[in-house]
Amino acid sequence: MQSKEKDNIIFIRLFPDEDLHEKLREVCKLHHVKTAVVLSGLGQLKKFKLGYLKEKDNHTPEKFDKPHELLALTGNICLQKEGYELHLHAALSDEKKNAIGGHLIEGKVEVTNEIVLLKTNIAVKRRLDEKTDLKGMFLE
């Protein structure tokens, strides 16, 4: 992993077999991130899992082992008492250019990932919203 920050923009390069979520947490800790917005993300992922909230308690996770092109990564990262909470969504395509997408639950880098974060000082808290069964974003 490599990262560099200037003017609250953090550029990140991930390498083969690195865990995307784990490395994003490391970068956030290294750069003292309170809250960040994922501006862009591209590259290739393997062994990733996508989710889709169909209904309460049914997130329909699906695992993909074969490499897919990471077309877009979006989301936000918030520092909580227990560590960094990542809320990421991704669009990916297979070798035939068939696109899939959803909540990115996990993923390993196949070739490379290039990710850009915007670092902010906005206080964001996540807590369980009983109506949706999701950790909702609350601005306090």
CATH topology: 60s Ribosomal Protein L30, Chain: A
Q: How much of the polypeptide forms β-strand, as a percent range?
A: over 45%
CATH architectural designation: 2-Layer Sandwich
Count of DSSP helices?
1
The coarse overall form would be flat
Provide the CATH top-level class: Alpha Beta
DSSP summary, beta strand count = 9
Radius of gyration: 15 Å
Class based on secondary structure composition and strand pairing: mainly beta
The CATH superfamily turns out to be Hypothetical protein, similar to alpha- acetolactate decarboxylase, domain 2
Low-confidence segments, given as residue ranges, are: none
What is the mean predicted local confidence, pLDDT? 94
Ends apart, CA distance between termini: 33 Å
Folded structure, characterized:
- The protein has 140 residues and is mainly beta.
- It has one domain (2-139): Hypothetical protein, similar to alpha- acetolactate decarboxylase, domain 2 (60s Ribosomal Protein L30, Chain: A).
- Helices cover 8% and strands 64% of the residues.
- The chain has one helix at 20-30, and strands at 2-6, 9-14, 35-51, 62-64, 68-80, 83-93, 99-120, 124-129, 134-139.
- Strand 1 (2-6) and strand 2 form a beta hairpin.
- The longest helix has 11 residues, at 20-30.
- The chain is flat, with a radius of gyration of 15 Å.
Any descriptors?
single chain; mainly beta; 60s Ribosomal Protein L30, Chain: A; seven-stranded antiparallel β-sheet; 9 strands; 8% helix
Explain briefly what this protein structure is.
The chain is mostly beta strands and 140 residues long. 8% of the residues lie in helices and 64% in strands.
